[in-house]
Amino acid sequence: MPGETVQFASNGGRAGGYLSVPESGNGAGVVVLQEWWGLVPHVKDVCDRFAAEGFVALAPDLYHGRATTSPDEAGKMMMALDIDRAEKDLRGAIKFLIDHPAVAGERVGTVGFCMGGALSLYAASKNEQVGACVVFYGVHPNVKPDLENLRAPVLGIFAERDAFAPPASVRDLERRLDEFGKPNEMHIYPGADHAFFNDTRPEVYKPDAARDAWRRTIEFFRRHLTTE
Description:
Layout: E1 4-10, E2 13-20, E3 29-33, H1 41-52, E4 56-60, H2 71-80, H3 83-99, E5 108-113, H4 115-126, E6 130-136, E7 154-159, H5 167-179, E8 184-189, H6 207-224
């Protein structure tokens, strides 16, 4: 079933996003958070892949219509992101999913890539309706998750050769989560680069690692998101 563009309430106004629903017509909800490029076709494809696995997936457009293929522009857009506004957009997206007739269960998952990975953890720390959180090489210097307030288990997917989220920072995150008693599992893929999951970027895409990370993500969400 092809996805569609939707609108949802956010911050006293409206925000947009891409929604993909499984052929079964219902499933657990997952919020998919973009890389620094914006709501590009790859992110929509990831939503469709979640739908094929039986999830209802929504990717909110955190740049509100802007997207780019230029790394320089992407970096500027990421740094210009209003984190407070983004948090409200995330809250609106989560509420939209939970209220959607196709979504089963009272809690949703969040998953994000690069900038979106940091925001996935941030959203989970700000909203008790997040029941599972997946972070793909999450990084954003202005995003500071409240780890002590986190209620969802965390799956971390990282790359050995990632200069943005190096292994040392992953171990530090793991240590902090452990100190707060937060359930987490961290995986660092040997020989992989930042953004290794993105199959539209052949210079960094690592198929074996991407397949394994996807398997872990699906299993994690199926384990932690009930649909009763």
